Amino acid sequence: MERHTEIVRQWRLLLALEGRARGLTLAELQEAAGEGVSDRTIRRDLNALGQAGFPIDSARIDGKARYSLNRDVFGGLAAAGFSLSELCALYLSRTLLAALAGGPFHDSLTSAFDKLAEALPPALWRFVDQLPQALAAKAPTARAQTAAPRQVDALMGAILAHRRVRMRYHSFASQQVKDYLVEPYRVAYAQGTLYLFAFVPLYGEMRTFAAQRIQDVTVLEETFDPQEASAGVFPDSLGAFSGLPERVTIEFTAAEAPYIRERDWHASQQMTDLPDGGVRLTLDVAIDWGLEAWILGFGAAARVIEPASLVSRLIDRLDAARRQYDSSA
Fold first, then answer.
1. CA-to-CA distance for 92 and 85, rounded, in angstroms?
2. Largest CA distance in the chain
3. 123 φ, ψ to 5°?
């Protein structure tokens, strides 16, 4: 933990120095580093940054020693429109992106960060590489198989060129492999997999296709005039589903209430405190498997008040689960 604290403190000093062309005094650097940091620690941190490849100069101005970051070594970054902190932040974000970008984007992501690493001296990146020790992201535990990279590339090209696509798709609803003519609007990532949002002329409506079940893609010469698409990705669902929103009211026990209050579950949410310390949560969302699974995950700590149809569906699921366990026993 102590080493992580040291790395983060040095990172703060680096960002503070980058933002001040005239440099900073020792007292100003102490303030930037955080409360309770001694001037001796600051000097040691500046020396460590210098050894890592960050050229830190010192000069006396108005009788005070001021420390500054020599920007000459970062000329290539400035030409590319990057500040040092922007580049480092982007480089560090690979910790988060790697948890999301599997399948078709893995090689591209690796290549992009390799190019970023080449933009600065190796000694400097060895320092930056320590920062992910203090910032991590857990990959989805149930990541689905994704479409082949060439299929994703073909879909992206068709979306940008507004060209129709003929594709072969394995539909779970019909348990058949079917051919579709679609007008692709967007590829989106949600809950560990990629989805294609496309208009299906045969049905006259927008539909959602799981990318890993697209078996073949052919981009046609036919173009289409795109209409305004939905601004969000599954905006009315707590999961990765489409459907019309309904008013849903759920009451949570006092023990669970702090966890409910501290999070934003959906843009439509409204919370009301209950006399016993619990909380009532109101949402305008699609009643789908994502919502049901989320509610059931709270066990006895959650009780649906409305709509009655959702109450009935949850009771049926609980009864079915009980029968499953009774039969196995």
1. 10
2. 85
3. -60, -35
Residues in the chain: 329
Is residue 307 reached through a cis peptide bond, with omega within 30 degrees of 0 on the bond before it? yes
> Domains of the chain, with CATH numbers?
1-139 (1.10.10), 149-223 (2.30.30.520), 245-328 (3.30.70)
Amino acid at 202: L
Per-residue pLDDT of the chain (329 residues; tens, 9 = 90+): 455 577 778 878 887 887 677 788 988 898 888 777 888 899 998 888 888 777 888 888 888 889 988 766 565 555 556 666 676 667 666 666 665 555 556 677 777 777 777 766 676 667 666 665 555 666 655 555 666 778 888 998 999 899 999 999 998 878 899 999 999 998 887 777 788 999 999 988 888 898 889 999 999 999 998 876 555 678 888 877 778 899 999 999 999 999 999 999 999 999 999 999 999 999 999 999 889 999 999 999 999 999 999 999 999 999 999 999 887 76
Model confidence, pTM: 0.61
How far apart are alpha carbons 100 and 139 in whole angstroms?
Answer: 7
